[in-house]
Amino acid sequence: MPPDHTSRREFLKLTGAGAIALAAGCKADTTATSGAGRGRGRVVLGHDDALAGGQLAKHMDLMTRMLGSAVQKLTGKTTAAEAWGSIFSPKDTVGIKVNCLGLPTSPAVVRAIVNCLLEASVPPERIIIWDRFDVELAAAGHKLNRSRSGVRCYGTDATTYGSGYEREVESSGSIGSCFSRIVTRECTALITASVLKDHNLAGVSGALKNFFGAIHNPNKYHEQNCDPYVADVVAHRHIGPKLRLAVCDATRGQYHAGPARHPAYAWKFGGLLVSRDAVAADRMGCDLLERERRAHGLDSLAAEKRPAKHILTAGERGLGVADLERIEVVEL
């Protein structure tokens, strides 16, 4: 009988060595750029059984230490504050792009990210937790704050649809969109705080697709498994050059029937995936999700005609490393 859930040991066995059979829904990319920037192709996996048990708010110290250690592994710095400080400056305005649809990014994970930024001397008023709508953020458990005091949290739109986007359409590859003023006018640095979950069209909803929440018309770009549109959005000047860290909330995930929330397909993994390379983070997340699907007797994403092609396209465009054999997994 297959295991109920993918364990940390099984995941590392699947991904760590590199010389393994690739998941059917995410075939090898032999043209992906590797080593095209510091931290490219390295993903840190933090795991603790306590994070699989729910009530994450009780484990804030654990998650903050885990994120601090993860970024130390990514940067080679001796302390967590130094590590985070090497990526984010006190002069930055850091936007934490969360995901509020279906299974949302846990507010506790976001709070741990904020704690690390504060330890690195990023002023609280220069930290913005954001997504599309105020109402979605509140429903996901985030405390709204539009004032200039403390950590801010708000959506692109508050009450009027379209009010928070630039008026001019900008193009990138195949997309033509108005971008959120949060990224165009406020943020100098971005963190994508995604959730490890299935998507009924793109295959995987992760670090890259999270930025569909930065454009006014994502509904137009879901054909062809959202490919190449996800890569087009991330490659845009308002996103790619500002994107400095990917944190995937894998404390619990959803391996089927996403992005809408279906508790029947949820699993408790108790981990975080952290990388300076959003493409590599999604590549590893894709394999983890595929393994969980197989453990439950489900077809691969490719067999269901929804392979996560956008991850490979992002790799081909030099946005990160999508070739599994070029990705280094570091376990905490």
The ordered string of helix (H) and strand (E) elements is HEHHEHEHEEEHEEHEEHHE
What's the number of domains?
1
Overall mean pLDDT stands at: 90
Question: What structural class is derived from the secondary structure elements?
Answer: alpha/beta
DSSP helix fraction: 25-40%
What separation lies between the terminal Cα atoms? Answer: 29 Å
Globally, the shape reads globular
Provide the gyration radius in Å.
Answer: 18 Å
Going by CATH, the homologous superfamily would be LarA, N-terminal domain
Number of helices: 9
Strand content: 15-25%
CATH top level is Alpha Beta
Number of strands: 11
Poorly predicted parts? 14-37
Largest sheet: 9 strands, mixed
CATH architecture: 3-Layer(aba) Sandwich
CATH topology: Rossmann fold
Please outline what is shown here:
The protein is of the alpha/beta class and 332 residues long. The protein contains 9 helices and 11 strands. 27% of the residues lie in helices and 21% in strands.
Please characterize this protein's 3D structure.
The structure is a single chain. With 332 residues, this protein is α/β, with parallel strands linked by helices. It is 27% helix and 21% strand. The chain has helices spanning 8-15, 60-75, 80-85, 107-119, 134-139, 181-186, 229-235, 278-295, 309-316, and strands spanning 42-47, 94-98, 127-133, 152-157, 170-172, 175-177, 189-199, 203-205, 243-254, 266-275, 328-331. The strands form two sheets. Strands 1, 2, 3, 4, 7, 8, 9, 10 and 11 form a nine-stranded mixed sheet that branches. It has a two-stranded antiparallel sheet with strand order 5-6. Residues 14-37 have low confidence and may be disordered.
